[in-house]
Amino acid sequence: LSCPGLRIGWLVSRDEQFLQKVSQLKDYTTICSSAPSEVLATIVLRSRNQILARNLELISTNLDTIRDFFIKHKDKFDWVEPL
Prior knowledge:
By secondary structure, the chain is mainly alpha-helical. It is built from three helices and no strands.
């Protein structure tokens, strides 16, 4: 969802041994998350549809801009548009 500054995250893996190692490392390096970050993360998750819609619109606009750039400068660059 792209919320820079919030130090909260999730990790998903099917590798149980890896998850155990990461969990131990987190326990070693972090006592707990900050309360304000937890509250803000909850607000973000509740607003995820609006945030995702905004992010997708930004991506679309930026893709149009970069596409136009590469068309204009096709003699200087090779570009493969992302799927």
